[in-house]
Amino acid sequence: MKPPIVWSVAGLDSGGGAGLSADQRAADATGVHLCPVAAALTAQNSVAVDAVFPVPPEQLAAQLATLAEDLPPVAVKTGLLGGVAQLRVVARWIDRLRERAPVALVVDPVLRASSGASFADEALLRAYREELLPRATVATPNRREAGRLVGDGPAPAQALALQALGVASVCITGGDEGRALALDWLASEHASGWLALPRRDARHNHGTGCCFATALAAALARGFVAADAAVIAKMLTTSGLHIDAKTPGTGPGPVRPVPDFITDATLLPALFDDAEPPARWPAPAGGAAVEGVYGITDRGEHAARLFGAGLRTVQLRIKRGDQEADWPTRLHAEIAAARGAGGLLIVNDHWREALAAGVDAVHLGQEDLLALSPAERRELAAARGGGLRLGISSHSLWELARAVAWAPDYVACGPVWPTLTKAMPWRPQGLANLAWWAAMAPAPVVGIGGVLAPAQLSLVAAAGASAGCVVRGLSDGSAWPVADWLAAWDSGRQMPASAAPDWPHPSLD
User: Fold this and answer.
1) DSSP class of residue 20?
2) Residues near 322 by Cβ (< 8 Å), separated by ≥ 6?
3) Exposed, middle or buried by CB within 10 Å (0-12, 13-18, 19+), for 129?
4) Which residues belong to the signal peptide in this entry (predicted)?
5) Rounded distance, CA 441 to CA 400, Å?
6) Which of 30, 262, 338, 372 has its CA 20 to 30 A from that of 235?
7) If 0-12 CB within 10 Å is exposed, 13-18 middle and 19+ buried, where does residue 65 land?
């Protein structure tokens, strides 16, 4: 399969640290083919930028026209453009390309060098606001660049202002702000919040913004949506911050991302949805793992029978009727019926009622997390401090990152196979993504979705999952008794372990 093609229209750093040089290193690490298009030449080294020479517009246009004939892009990333005329050439070509096929545009508005030299006057800033940013799929300014474009203020407010200009998604990078965590504010269709990783004490950080934007464009080219692409960009950029690297000059050395960043579990960021920046990395839960066959039922009496047949973990998934006035009474009765036989009972969704009933574990979907008020977040955190165990669903990279922020006792990955249990927009994860989740998640992983026969459950176990969920296969009238499912899990544990793939595949169109 041919690698996706990404164009980078940016400046040539004569010192080899930032610009097109950094873009090439990021593209190599993500496995895409980069077409480096020079929009400006710079006279710079590792210490300073002495001069910028914009490429004549006709020369820039000629580069793009030639590439369009043979190497049309799936994504285009812009960096240092040099002037209004160069920006307008790019904007016209984005429109032409999009007449033929969808093309993602990542705009990294390089407005100032790290040494302080400005690359943009007011005319160029206006052209960004009125002509390029409205065409952008994602914009990746740092905090200072966002300030020049839309004014100073908190990063969430800056992102909203950029989106008001027409930008579809924004990731405002802030890794240079000196906090204990390196924080970037993401605002996209699917997710918003702080992407966080512990700060690396690395002096050699020349080209971080270029690497981040190019990695994000590469992830878009590989089929990931913007929120997932931002997670990947965060991972790649952090991987390139080598603490013990030697610099070729007297100033900061270049960021050098490594190709295996995507399988390094220490690089998986957390996504915090609070508007206030997080102060610390979440401590791991440290509870006992959920293991083996994980039954799911909507009846307490059935849960009790599953426990009696040998299951050690059962989730009680009860839907509340819109007009059900006696809901708490019914839920408490179902919980009481389920708890009589022992084992770990997990209640889905209804965490406050579960707490009132003295249940030891709850499972929440991502929509449940987002619906929590600040007071409810504090209440849930206090309950967890008191011993309540928490499982969280995840279907994508950004949902996995959000789960990281909650430090759950386990993370559910799904749907492994197509499922009719509930309607959802997600592509099946497959065993490959399940193996990647199991290798990367900071908590045990539970495979869920489409497990209809014991042989499938064996494959879930071989993929490295701590547990596998079974719904219809454990229902009354199933062709397989509980003993068959338990045996299938044990058999899967004896199979050769499935290797995690080099890259996960996108789970959302």
Assistant:
1) H
2) none
3) middle
4) none
5) 7
6) 372
7) exposed
317 and 256 both lie in a single domain: no
Which CATH number characterizes residue 41's domain?
3.40.1190.20
Single-letter code of the amino acid located at 496: P
SS3 505: coil
Question: Which two three-digit tokens encode residue 206?
Answer: 């020349």
Sheet strands side by side (includes 33-44):
49-54, 33-44, 5-13, 75-78, 104-107, 138-139, 169-173, 181-187, 192-198, 270-272
What total number of domains does the chain contain? Answer: 2
- Check residue 289 and give its pLDDT: 76
Residue 287, domain member (yes or no): no
Residue 301, phi then psi, degrees to nearest 5: -65, -40
217 shares its domain with 298 = no
Asked if the structure places residue 444 within a domain, the reply is yes
Do 256 and 365 lie in one domain? The reply is no
Helices (H), 15-56: 19-30
- The answer for residues whose C-beta is within 8 angstroms of residue 358's C-beta and 6 or more apart is none
Same domain, 330 and 427: yes
According to the model, what pLDDT value does residue 321 have? 66
In a domain, 379, yes or no: yes
- What is the domain extent for residue 476? 292-494
Measured CA to CA, the distance from residue 160 to residue 327 in angstroms comes to 40
What are the per-10-residue average pLDDT scores of the chain (509 residues)? 96 95 98 98 91 96 98 98 97 98 98 68 96 98 96 97 98 82 97 96 88 98 98 97 77 91 98 93 83 96 95 91 71 84 87 88 95 92 92 98 97 93 85 98 96 98 98 95 98 93 95
pLDDT of 320: 74
Q: Is 39 helix (H, G, I), strand (E, B) or coil?
A: strand
What's 242's DSSP letter? -
Question: Domain holding 393: CATH number?
Answer: 3.20.20.70
Q: What is the pLDDT of residue 341?
A: 65
